[in-house]
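User: Please predict the structure of the protein below. I'd like the answer in structure-token form so I can feed it into my own downstream comparison script.

Assistant: Understood. Taking the following sequence of 372 residues as input:
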Amino acid sequence: MKFLHIADLHLGKRVNEYSMLDEQRAVLEQIVDITKKEKPHAVFIAGDVYDKLTPPAEAVMLLDSFLCSLARCGTEVFLISGNHDSPERLAFGSALMEGSGVHIAPVYDGTLSKHTVKDEYGEVDVYMLPFIRPSNVKRFFEDKEILSYTDAVNTAIDAANIDFDGRRTVLLSHQFVTGGTTCESEVFAVGGLDNVDADAYDGFDYVALGHLHGQQKIVDGRIYYSGTPLKYSFSEKDHKKGVLLGEIDGDGGVKTTLIPLIPLHDMRELKMTFNEAIEHPSDDYMHIILTDEVPVPFAHSKLLSYFPNLMNTDYETGSKEEDDILLAEHKYTSPSEIFEELFEKINGRPMTDEQRKISDELIKKIWEEEVL
């Protein structure tokens, strides 16, 4: 079975107040062209279709046009909601779309949506698991101990009673899998509260992941993030964006290739003096770091004449490096440890075991309810 894997479209997104809608329309057109050329059996869209729970009308219209174009290609489309999506809004009209081969995962109800795709080797079962939190799963399995995101995913998959031995299987999932490489444009839990162990996906021949913006493999030949089709922050400036083309053979073996997507405007960073910068005009989205010892008056306004899509202008200082070092020290520190450190500084004594237990319970509850 041949497939295309994309995710994290973030339709309607604005970066530094610049609308990405034209950029998104251009790459979606490229994806449709790739679909026409490669003729895959399926297109997997692994969540974060929109950038907000209530997307702007233009973003909704763009998704409508994209799905209609894919349906006309004769391929089946599988789409799940991510943490940025409203699953209820995304699933609107899904029953009608089924007839056109567009399958949208409903709001999680304790079961996994399942569809079967046929190829020259037989059948492949495609399961869809939208973004879930422990609380989403716990309400349907009150007798289960579900304390973590790994517990939630394990419970959801176990309940599906999937035939891993006799069938080829694919899963669409939108979670932060342990071992994935993050960047500044993503929201993730300090200390890894929302991590899912890769072992939770054991048995599937291929897992099409969404959530992390860089294209990467978690388990070679089996578990992949496709990454975003566009760069959405300067932390992604070195990413190679594209769509994953994969093929599952008759034995469940998978091979993937990244097909590049070309943006209307790249996202780049320059670090040089003002006079050096103006020798390199560009209409790309730019972050310019000036190295002049003496600040240039109205530098940003002047640079706009040479860089019409200039997003940020900064001066090179030591403060950012110091901030990065401080952030790095706490990047893998859990919220509980940070709060305990703060408590001790304020009160001049460490927390008691009872206080620590209450703190941990509150932090888990707040994170589960509030994090996107």
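That's the full token string. The CA atoms of residues 173 and 349 lie 44 Å apart.
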